[in-house]
Amino acid sequence: MRTAAAIFPYLAFDPRSRVPFYKQIYDGYREAILAGRLRRGQRLPSTRALAAELKISRLPVLNAFEQLLHEGYLEGKAGAGTFVRDSIPDELSKPLVVKDGRTKVRRIAAAAFVSEGIGPFRVSLPALDRFPREIWGRLVARHGKRLPIELMAYGDPAGHAPLREAIASYVRAARAVNCEAAQVLIVSGSQMALQLCALALLKPGDSVFIEDPGYPGARDALQVSGAKVIPVQVDSEGIDVARIASQRKRARVAYVTPSHQYPLGVSMTASRRLELLDWARRTQSWILEDDYDSEYRYASRPLGALQGMDTSDRVIYIGTFSKVLFPALRVGYMIIPPDLVGSFVRLRESLDIFSPTLYQLVLTDFLNEGHFARHLRRMRSVYHGRRDAMVHSLEKHLGSTLEPYNTDAGLHLSGFLPRGIEDREVVRRAAQAGVVATALSSCYAGEHRRSGLILGFGGASERRIQAAASMLARVIESLRFR
Fold first, then answer.
1. Among 152, 319, 378, 455, which is 20 to 30 Å from 29 by CA?
2. Residue 215's closest CA among 205, 227, 223, 207?
3. β-strands 207-212, 253-256: how paired?
4. Is residue 106 scored above 70 in pLDDT?
5. Which pairs with CB-CB distance under 8 Å and at least 24 residues apart come from 259-262?
6. Which 3 state secondary structure label does DSSP give 266?
7. If you ran DSSP here, which 8-state letter would residue 298 be given?
8. Alpha carbon of 346 to those of 112, 185, 285: distances in Å?
């Protein structure tokens, strides 16, 4: 049986508009469905045909369609194409509300945020399409239906005890961390962990060493205390510890990402690690080790944590489940030196009392029943394939224009741009097509900045990576020869 030819709906599409192409397509299709111009069950044109009709790259069309599929407006039928969904959920099918001459959508602006958040090259985004949602859903239902009364009350500020045990077992075995469950503190992600460190360890005027380039979120969190941030250059061996040791003024804290430096991707060498630990011991300073995505290495087995080499209890270890599971989970953890546990727990309680219990229960089972380990094994293969697709696509479309700096680990890679090309302008233009790259220059705190791009590959399929790389090449070429 042949399906009827798809009709191109009217879209208020303006290629000169500052609104990203994918957002214009998404909004146009959604409004056409809600207004009844596209009826339930109606077949849509292919993404390739629509891109040709609009005279644009196929990538923003793919992004718009994937978002509409994800939200339940469309459905794909194998061998037949893409159709308006027969049964649109009630909360999606409500009409647009017009008030005071301005159009408002009942579901506010969440769709736009989600679209930007899952675009290709989005940094720190895992493969959400490969997460075992059915298993996770069963665990949520298990605990949601049988939640004991005592677990509906206020919880332990340090976290659910069985989860702390499970995390301690995991980091001891997988990351060579030296700890007991009593040292584990559950937090709502690594950003809260950094804020706690700033509150507990720093006061106005204190000095903090940070990697340069480095993670801007750490810089922002540590500056909240009024501390002075001192950027220290990163080279192929990690942070320059000799420069740290040469500083006359003692710093209270050094923040590092030794297993997979953000954003350049290098791993701190063993000699540098020992030098940094020796500096902390001699000066009685603290090291904040952010181990944000160390589970994924493609050239060797995962490296052991810096904390496991520490014999003086000077390292505070920070981990998160945002990259290995999904960001919306908002569960992270800290491994605190024994003498600091009490003060950190009190500060953690002062921020928001305790972490939600339900997800802690679910995550405990996810770890203890082996689902987490199986997921990690599967994802290493998936990310390896996506990493290879990224490297090959950049080589094909960009050649020496954007040469990856390090591709051994993690869910992103960085590359430097030729002199004269402003990375922020590349990012702005790429966003018009739904590609969410990050400017490398935004990660520098010092005066010396290099123009480049940070490109995530974890959250996009190999096909989308290839299309995004082609589009990015066109953006960069247009800036080179303008």
1. 455
2. 223
3. parallel
4. no
5. 259/291, 259/294, 259/302, 259/303, 259/305, 259/306, 259/409, 260/292, 260/293, 260/294, 260/297, 260/409, 260/410, 261/211, 261/234, 262/211, 262/214, 262/215, 262/290, 262/292, 262/443
6. coil
7. S
8. 38, 11, 21
Tokens, residue 359: 């997800």
Phi, psi (degrees; rounded to nearest 5) at 274: -65, -40
Contact predicate 229/263, CB 8 Å: no
Are 245 and 224 spatial neighbours (Cβ–Cβ below 8 Å)?
no
Tell me the two tokens of residue 72: 């339940």
Query: From start to end of 306-398, where are the E strands?
Result: 315-320, 332-335
Q: What domains appear along the chain, each with residue ranges and CATH number? A: 21-117 (1.10.10.10), 149-369 (3.40.640.10), 373-480 (3.90.1150.10)
Predicted structure pTM score: 0.79
Residue closest to 184 by CA, chosen among 66, 318, 93: 318
CA distances from 101 to 29, 104, 110, 244, 318 (A): 22, 10, 21, 59, 49
- Fill in the DSSP letter of residue 263: T
Residues 222, 197 contacting (CB under 8 angstroms): yes
Using alpha carbons, select from 93, 6, 87, 90 the residue that is nearest to residue 42.
6
Q: Which two tokens stand for residue 269?
A: 């060498």
Q: Is 154 exposed, middle or buried (CB count within 10 Å of its CB: 0-12, 13-18, 19+)? A: exposed
Both tokens of residue 139?
Answer: 């665990």
* Cα(351)–Cα(341) distance, integer angstroms: 16
pLDDT band of residue 242 (cuts 50, 70, 90) is: very high
Closest by CA to 211, choosing from 450, 455, 443, 452, is 443
Q: Which residues pair with 97 in a beta bridge?
A: 104
CB count, 10 Å around CB of 462? 17
Please check whether residue 58 is in contact with residue 47, taking contact to mean a CB–CB distance below 8 angstroms.
yes
Provide the 8-state DSSP code for 119.
S
Residues 336/361, Cβ–Cβ less than 8 Å: no
Least confident piece of the model among 58-67, 228-237, 321-330: 58-67
User: For 1-44, how does the pLDDT look when each residue is reduced to its tens digit (9 = 90+)?
Assistant: 444 556 677 677 888 887 888 888 988 888 888 877 788 888 88
DSSP state for residue 204 in the 8-state scheme: T
Residue 80, C-beta contacts closer than 8 angstroms, at least 6 positions apart: 3, 43
